[in-house]
């Protein structure tokens, strides 16, 4: 019988794959879309003389549409972030306590580079979700879900934080091999080949 831990790690059947790297694309897309729409809406608002940067592209008639799209994208981001954060937390737990890190080149007392990268990746995502919660709470009772300057600032932070978090996540998976070769065809390859992949900073069978 499958345990909740196995399901969160994607260990479903012989050819199971990690779930978190797939789920993360949903809140990432919704958060970036909502944040960029907030910024576009604010900088095209006719009531702010100093922000009429986009009025030649976006007419005032577009602003209610931008606000509504942004608000509902924020809700979608928060909903899809729940399974994403859960599976990410399980992946982190498995990484920290699963005995899969190669620490031979790490000095005693120092954090493993992968652990440090994972922690930064996680906290950037937590901060981005917190920002999305702020934007949702401050706008849910506002007529037309209008974005304020504060919402636009938070949106700008989310764009930067999520962009860097996505870069770190891709590095963890594709460069460091985190979460791969522990199940399915990857596990079969690891057991069959073993040893070190030439020219790579990833040892087969080890998550660095």
From TrEMBL:
The keyword Kinase does not apply. Residues 16-181 form the DUF2231 domain. The keyword Metal-binding does not apply. InterPro entries: DUF2231_TM (IPR019251). Pfam families: DUF2231. The chain crosses the membrane at residues 24-44, 65-86, 152-175. Keywords: Membrane, Transmembrane, Transmembrane helix. This is DUF2231 domain-containing protein.
């Amino acid at each position: 019988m499958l345990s909740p831990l196995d399901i969160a790690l994607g260990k479903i059947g012989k050819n199971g794959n990690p779930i978190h790297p797939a789920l993360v694309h949903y809140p990432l897309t919704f958060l970036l879309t909502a944040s960029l729409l907030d910024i576009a809406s604010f900088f095209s608002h006719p009531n702010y003389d100093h922000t009429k940067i986009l009025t030649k592209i976006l007419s005032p008639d577009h602003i209610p549409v931008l606000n509504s799209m942004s608000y509902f994208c924020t809700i979608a981001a928060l909903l899809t972030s729940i399974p994403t954060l859960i599976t990410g937390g399980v992946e982190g737990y498995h990484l920290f306590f699963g005995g899969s890190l190669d620490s031979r080149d790490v000095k005693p007392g120092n954090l493993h580079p992968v652990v440090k990268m994972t922690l930064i990746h996680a906290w950037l995502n937590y901060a981005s979700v917190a920002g999305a919660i702020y934007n949702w709470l401050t706008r849910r009772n506002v007529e037309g879900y209008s974005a304020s300057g504060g919402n636009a600032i938070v949106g700008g932070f989310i764009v930067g934080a999520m962009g860097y978090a996505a870069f770190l996540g891709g590095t963890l998976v594709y460069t460091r091999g985190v979460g791969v070769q522990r199940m399915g065809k990857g596990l079969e390859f690891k057991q069959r080949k073993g040893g070190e992949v030439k020219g790579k900073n990833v040892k087969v069978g080890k998550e660095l």
